[in-house]
Automatic annotation (TrEMBL):
Source organism per UniProt: Hibiscus syriacus
Coiled coil stretches, renumbered: 278-327, 369-438
Classification lineage: Eukaryota, Viridiplantae, Streptophyta, Embryophyta, Tracheophyta
Region of interest (Disordered), residue spans: 132-155
CC terms in the record's Gene Ontology section: mitotic spindle; spindle microtubule
Name used for this protein in its record: Kinesin-like protein
Length: 752
């Protein structure tokens, strides 16, 4: 289809014959060349109709006497046919060119200020192709053929149909620019009305509207297959270079953009000759019955023969078994007697050997006594040598005492140096004690505020917030200038680098207070970049993976949740293995508050379009779904928020064409949990789950899985009973725009 302002080259693009220069052939001529190159005269037929829509009257360009052809629509298949149009069978390219010349001679055109030969009608070229697919050999061929080849040969005659429609739309024009009047003015009004009706249909289809006004114009009735139907549609947009027509150019481009959003469902059209198939099946059935009766008789005879043979073999095997058992018994008895004799002979030999061994022991004892005498004499000589060595050491000791005096002066110098080091150590310990007291005070204020918030906000709707950022920020606000001032004062006096260094302290209490301070600092957006630049993100991930203290892991996960609000920090968390560490923490943690922090961090990461595939591949999505075992309402609210964020990002990526295939949530078996909690009593859980269901239903590829899991009923309930109007509208649009959902509701006789 070619669409654009008058005089911008639509007819030049589609209808040029290229008689003078073959390089100037239009799409109609080139398309027919490709079709004729692919078809076979023996099995294929190609026929052509050429019409124009002039002043809302459908006329035959090949037979001008047919000036008001009716349009017939098949309500079952949705096909559009023109029974009154002339259909000419094409055998070669030359005959097709002659038909195009004939049609162009009858087409309405006029001279305007914008175009000397302006088309005043919409031209439609329809090319019909039919291909007969021949079956294999008939079942009548031979009685000796086996049943397998006979069943394969029974195929119904098959006819495949295809249709190419090339539409040269008349150009849209403004009457004040074209300078037309009289009858030509009425023609322009008719053209603009039909193009306006086409634009309304494109808008309705692009917005998934429930009603598409295809019956407002004959043009839209003829083209209902091209947009939103079963055709593969290509749209050519033509524009002019003149800045005078900037408005028409922008309108044409916007029409093309809206048309690109329309999705067609391609369909292969085939027809079968079922009567011929029935006759062949009757013949095959008779042959199979005869063959079955013959084989049944042979089978009964074979069973009788096998039964007799088996009985004979059983009796023979029983006899052989009895003989073998008797032979085995005699063999074992003989071996037993021989073993008894060997043992008696061996016992006698042992008795004789014991006497000789006693004599050998006496000789060996005498040799040992002689050896001991030799050792005694050797020890005596060694003792004399040791006494000489002691005397020598005494003389050396006297010399050492003389050198001791010179060493005392060196010791005094070292002692003075040691006293200086001790004073420096005391000074450093004083600074550390000040830091610890500040950390203890700040941690006490943080715990006190958190307990007050938990007692006062147990019934609040925490699941509806976009992140866990609000879980720390209200603490600062509620405590007024207390804790916030303490954090700011500590931050200014001590410095971020020293606070982060305390995260690696050996004292567990110091680490706990330090990580609480970092978590409170991370709640402020202005501090997050400083924490990441100073290496705080890496230190928090290390603590999360290595620490065995539940408090440290809980507060570290909360700090990561606050940092994960920033898109740059999200990518850093992913690149440094944060998903694996959060998944491991979710698996090992038992405390609901720790699980809530981990779920909040994962939920924030689920809201990043770039991390969808990596989040699922590294197990983050499965870890989020595994947290639901906890059953705590606050934890489930964070899980539901993460699933809603993930589904929303997937929906956006699919709409933009960046993703295809089923949802990763469905692949990771999240759909049963979503359906189960879509009507939860807790409003935060229910709202996020309802949003996730609506986003999943936006894409047709997820429809079958959602129907199998019972999500269709929940979508119907959401579209009718949800208290939020935006969610009701989204659910209604998902149901009415999905052919799969519509077909299922019709099958279930649901009046929607």
């Amino acid at each position: 289809m070619a669409y654009g302002q008058t005089g911008t080259g639509k007819t030049y693009t589609l209808g040029r014959l290229g008689e003078e220069d073959t390089a100037n052939r239009g799409i109609m001529v080139r398309a027919m060349e490709d079709i004729l190159a692919e078809v076979s005269p023996e099995r294929d037929t190609v026929s052509v109709s050429y019409l124009q829509l002039y002043m809302e009257s459908l006329q035959d360009l090949l037979d001008p006497t047919k000036d008001n052809i009716s349009i017939i629509e098949d309500h079952k298949s949705g096909d559009v046919s023109l029974p009154g149009a002339t259909v000419v069978e094409i055998r070669d390219q030359q005959s097709f060119l002659e038909l195009l010349r004939l049609g162009e001679a009858h087409r309405h055109a006029a001279n305007t200020k914008l175009n000397t030969e302006s088309s005043r009608s919409h031209a439609l070229l329809m090319v019909h192709v039919k291909r007969s697919v021949k079956g294999r050999e008939s079942a009548h061929s031979s009685e000796n053929s086996n049943n397998t080849s006979m069943s394969k040969s029974l195929r119904p005659p098959l006819v495949r149909k295809g249709k190419l429609v090339v539409v040269d739309l008349a150009g849209s024009e403004r009457i004040d620019k074209s300078g037309i009047e009289g009858h030509t003015r009425e023609e322009a009004k008719s053209i603009n009305l039909s193009l306006s009706a086409l634009g309304k249909c494109i808008n309705a289809l692009a917005e998934n509207s429930a009603h598409v006004p295809v019956r407002d114009s004959k043009l839209t009735r003829l083209l209902r297959d091209s947009f939103g139907g079963t055709a593969r549609t290509s749209l050519v947009i033509t524009i002019g270079p003149s800045p005078r027509h900037r408005g028409e150019t922008a309108s044409t481009i916007m029409f093309g953009q809206r048309a690109m959003k329309v999705e067609n469902m391609l369909k292969l059209k085939e027809e079968f000759d079922y009567k011929s198939l029935a006759r062949r099946l009757d013949i095959q059935l008779d042959n199979l019955i005869m063959e079955h009766e013959r084989k049944e008789k042979e089978f009964e005879a074979e069973i009788g023969r096998i039964t007799t043979d088996v009985q004979n073999r059983i009796s023979e095997a029983e006899r052989n078994y009895a003989d073998a058992m008797e032979k085995e018994r005699l063999k074992y008895q003989k071996d037993y007697m021989e073993s008894i004799k060997k043992l008696e002979e061996k016992w006698m030999m042992n008795q004789q050997n014991q006497g000789s061994e006693r004599q050998e022991q006496m000789v060996h004892t005498a040799e040992e006594v002689a050896e001991l005498n030799k050792l005694l004499s050797k020890e005596t000589s060694l003792r004399k040598a040791a006494e000489d060595e002691v005397n020598n050491l005494k003389s050396q000791l006297a010399q050492l005492k003389m050198s001791e005096a010179s060493g005392n002066s060196e010791i005094l110098k070292l002692r003075k140096m040691l006293e200086g080091e001790v004073s420096q150590k005391k000074k450093l310990e004083g600074e550390i004690s000040i830091l610890q007291s500040q950390l203890l005070h700040l941690s006490f204020e943080s715990d006190k505020t958190r307990r007050r918030l938990d007692r006062g906000g147990a019934g609040n709707d925490t699941g509806g917030l976009d992140s866990l950022f609000s879980q720390v920020r209200p603490q600062l606000k509620d405590s007024g200038n207390g804790e916030k001032a303490s954090v700011a004062r500590l931050f200014e006096q001590v410095g971020l680098q020293k606070i982060l260094s305390l995260l690696e302290a050996e004292d567990a209490d110091v680490r706990i207070h330090a990580v609480k301070v970092v978590a409170n600092l991370a709640a402020e957006e202005t501090n997050q970049e400083k924490i990441v630049e100073a290496g705080g993100l890496k230190t928090l991930l290390t603590l999360l993976g290595s620490s065995e203290d539940e408090t440290i892991r809980r507060v570290a996960a909360g700090a990561l949740a606050n940092l994960a609000m920033n898109e740059t920090n999200q990518e850093l968390i992913m690149s440094q293995g944060g998903i694996s560490l959060l998944s491991m923490t979710a698996t090992n943690a038992k405390d609901p508050q720790t699980l809530r922090m981990v779920a909040g961090a994962l939920a924030n990461l689920c809201g990043n379009d770039k991390l969808q595939t990596k989040l699922s591949g590294e197990g983050g999505l499965k870890a989020l779904l595994g947290i639901v075992k906890c059953g705590h309402p606050d934890v489930l609210a964070q899980v539901a928020r993460g699933i809603a964020n993930f589904a929303k990002c997937e929906s956006r990526a699919s709409t933009q064409g960046n993703k295809s295939g089923r949802s990763l949530l469905i692949e990771d078996r999240a759909l049963p949990w979503i359906v189960q909690h879509s009507n939860s009593d807790a409003s935060p859980i229910r709202r996020h789950v309802e949003l996730a269901l609506c986003h999943l239903a936006q894409h047709e590829v997820n429809a079958k899985d959602m129907i199998n899991e019972g999500a269709l009923w929940e979508l119907i309930r959401i579209s009718q009973d949800c208290p939020r109007e935006d969610i009701r509208t989204l659910a209604h649009r998902s149901l009415t725009s999905s052919p799969t959902f519509i077909a299922e509701m019709r099958q279930l006789q649901i009046d929607y």
